[in-house]
Design a protein that fits this description.
The chain is built from 24 helices and 7 strands. The protein is mainly alpha-helical. Helix 17 crosses helix 20 (409-447) and helix 21 packs antiparallel against helix 22 (478-498).
């Protein structure tokens, strides 16, 4: 559930070997191990769960199978798991049940298989959310392999029997191909982690054929490739090995000569396991700051967290709260759209900060179909207490005395509430400007297609309502404004669906993503940044639909830092970055691709994407776009 962190000369390192591989046998119950478990059970916060049979069973199984070096951390992790919220526990249970159901169904098997399943479920308590699906799938594959080696009598209607039947020809082909001892497991184990039974049959057939007809190529190229992928840290990337065996269904794949080209192809079509560990680290850091006991490593790990934590957010909050209190939104010039460049100081996040701050305060999207009233007083109580200063002093009745005195508590409360109101109103105005410009851009793009001109009504209506809102003096009604933003968001999504059918050029399909990533490498991502370079892949009008389908709301899993007021900070566990495709651009480009800051909704758990092996599109059921950009990249028009 968390990573065991410890300081090093290079800041910090971590361990994940305690859950990396499903154990082949029980660890010897040494006297020291028995004593360690007894001492752990005697701790006051553990003794409270002494009558919880499930907790006791999990402790016993983990204590028998985790190595001595990580035993203390593992026992504390089991405790932390059992103390999770019911919502979080349900989330983790659902992930695990989905994998075990796909492999074993509801059948009851012989005791060795049932014991393996119980052990696997206990050990999965040690696995971070980000790794949970992948490790559960790996454990299930290991249980299937053990069953195949024991060859137990099985109900022919059981899922496990069907899996072993599909797997048997592959095992025979591996033996016939005379793969080097120990290396065949790399291919075979990866195949066993394929969840879908139909896919397992197809892949086993294809891999068996490749083993028999291309045995030399498998020995010299495929197996070393898989071994290299498995040796990478962090965590054995089973998902990459699955990509290897899936590619064997394409005959041209295993006739290629350039091994590096094959590896590059694989890396371009699979998820980066390092980003999963990044998420696990984020969750670990958050748990430490919330007081979760991780045993002996807790104090050292907290030092790592403090060294990694930046004061940039706190400093920005203090500066912006005072600045917002002196601004009048009704007199501000129209704020530039986050989707477009602006002649503003990109290092000044003043216009973007209120949007992100409001999203953080309400722990949900500013665009809401059922927006509830914002409690200004409650938000004001969350603000740090103001320190006495020039603006916080009162004069003594004695004219000659200028000694600064703290404001009365009620005056401080009123000042804090005024700050909140100002932040809310500025956030609403900036958001309204974004949605207006976005609606205008999408409307123009729809008008370019004759067959869609009859479907402009929804977007046109929203655009009119946003124009009306922006012409209305402040203060705005937050609930009404947020409901309108939700309508604008829905109209935008509907417009994008109408444009998905457009055809794009082959060059764009092949090059756009690589060119985008190359452009990103040259940029410094910064809170509120509305400028950026060019994506060197000119497009035609019809290419927008392909780019939108491929890129829009795509998680940037490798980007974990941004500049906040000039200081580099790590995103926390509730933040993520994703791409946003604009309808057009006022810079002369065909359109722009922005990098937006996302946040996780209150009481939600899980990674930014639902299933990283299938898609990197953000999971909008648990995460929301703040519409605050951190960079804007421009896509040129072909021929211009």
């Amino acid at each position: 559930m968390y990573l065991e962190i410890f300081p090093t000369d290079d800041l910090f390192d971590w361990k994940e070997h305690y859950f990396e591989q499903f154990p082949s046998s029980e660890t010897v119950a040494s006297d020291a191990r028995v004593d360690a478990l007894a001492a752990f059970r005697a701790k006051p916060n553990v003794a409270l769960l002494a009558e919880n049979d499930a907790f006791e069973d999990d402790l016993d199984r983990v204590a028998r199978h985790v190595g001595d070096a990580s035993l203390d951390f593992a026992l504390h992790t089991v405790l932390a798991h059992h103390r999770l919220t019911s919502r979080h526990l349900a989330f983790r249970r659902q992930k695990v049940d989905a994998e075990f159901g796909a492999y074993f169904g509801t059948n009851v098997y012989d005791e060795p298989i049932e014991a393996d399943q119980r052990l696997a479920r206990s050990l999965l308590m040690l696995v971070p959310d980000a790794h949970l699906t992948d490790v559960a799938r790996t454990y299930c594959g290991a249980i299937v392999k053990r069953a195949a080696q024991r060859n137990p009598p099985l109900d022919k209607k059981s899922l496990l029997h069907k899996r072993l039947t599909a797997y048997a020809p592959l095992a025979a082909a591996a033996a016939a191909a005379k793969l080097p001892e120990g290396t065949s497991a790399v291919v075979l184990d990866a195949t066993l982690t394929l969840q879908e039974l139909d896919e397992l049959r197809k892949v086993c057939e294809a891999v068996s054929k490749a083993l028999l007809q291309q045995a030399k190529w498998v020995r010299q190229t495929l197996v070393p490739m898989c071994e290299a992928l498995h040796s990478e840290r962090p965590f054995r990337p089973w998902d990459r090995s699955r990509v290897v065996v899936r590619q064997l269904q394409t005959p041209s794949f295993y006739t290629a000569k350039d091994e590096m080209a094959i590896l590059k192809h694989l890396m371009g079509h699979t998820f980066n396991a390092a980003s999963m560990t990044g998420l696990a680290l984020d969750a670990t850091f958050k748990a430490l700051t919330e007081g979760v006991d991780m045993g002996r490593c807790t104090d050292a790990a907290l030092k790592v967290v403090r060294s990694r934590r930046s004061t940039a957010w706190t400093e920005l909050d203090e500066a912006m709260l005072d600045r917002c209190a002196t601004r009048r939104p009704d007199l501000d010039n129209a704020v530039e759209s986050p989707g477009h460049p602006a002649d503003a100081d990109e290092s000044d996040p003043a216009w973007a900060w209120p949007i992100d701050k409001l999203a953080q305060w309400i722990e949900g999207p500013i665009a809401s179909k059922e927006a509830k009233p914002i409690d200004n007083a409650a938000l004001a109580r969350k603000l740090p207490k103001r320190k006495p200063g020039v603006s916080d002093t009162v004069k003594s009745p004695n004219a000659s005395s200028k000694k600064a005195l703290p404001e009365p508590a009620d005056d401080q409360d009123a000042a804090a509430e005024r700050q909140v109101v100002s932040v809310v109103q500025q956030a609403l105005r900036s958001s309204a400007t974004f949605f207006r410009d976005d609606a205008r851009d999408m409307l123009e793009r729809l008008k370019a297609y004759n067959n869609l001109k009859g479907k402009l009504g929804e977007l046109a209506k929203v655009l009119d309502e946003l124009d009306t809102l922006l012409a209305t003096p402040h203060p705005w009604n937050p609930a009404q404004a947020r409901t309108l933003f939700a309508h604008a968001e829905a109209a935008d999504e509907n417009a994008r669906k109408l444009l998905k059918t457009s055809k794009s050029s082959e060059k764009v399909r092949k090059e756009f993503m690589n060119k985008l990533l190359a452009a990103l490498e040259k940029e410094k991502l910064s809170l509120g940044k509305r400028t950026g370079g060019k994506i060197d892949c000119p497009v035609m009008a019809a290419d927008w639909a392909y780019v939108n389908t491929t890129v829009h709301n795509r998680w940037l899993h490798e980007h974990k830092e941004i500049l906040v007021n000039g200081k580099s900070v790590f995103l926390d566990a509730d933040q993520a970055l994703a791409l946003y495709v604009t309808g057009s651009s006022n810079s002369g480009a065909a359109f722009c691709v922005s990098i937006h800051l996302w946040r996780r909704k209150a009481d939600c758990v899980g990674t930014p994407v639902a299933d990283p092996e299938e898609s990197l599109i953000m999971d909008k059921s648990c995460w929301f776009d703040t519409y605050v950009p951190c960079c804007v990249l421009h896509v040129p028009t072909k021929g211009v």
